[in-house]
Amino acid sequence: MSSLSYPTWASRAKRTAHLFFELVLRDFKAGFLGSYLSVVWAFLQPGITVLLLWFVFEVGFRAGPQGDRPFILWLLAGLIPWFFFSEAWAAATQSILGYRYLVKNIVFPLGILPLVKIGSSLIVHMFFLVVVVGILVAYRQHPGWALLQIPYYLAGSLVLLVGLSWLTSSLIVFIPDVGYMVATCIQFGFWFTPIMWNIGMVPARYVPWIALNPAYYLIDGYRRAFLYGGWFWERPMLTGYFWLVTLAIFFTGRIVFQKLRPHFADVI
Question: Is the pTM of this model over 0.90?
Answer without folding.
Answer: no
